Amino acid sequence: MKTLLLFATLVATPVALVRAQTTSAPWTDHSRVLPDKLRQVPVGITLWHTPNPVYPEPNPEQPGGYVWKHSTTVRSEVGELEVVECGSFIWYSAEGWKANMHETPAEFAELFNCPGALLRAGQPYTFQKNYRFADNAQRLYGGDALWYILAKDKAGKLYKGFGLIETEAKVK
Question: Which CATH number belongs to the domain containing residue 117 in this structure?
Answer without folding.
Answer: 2.60.40
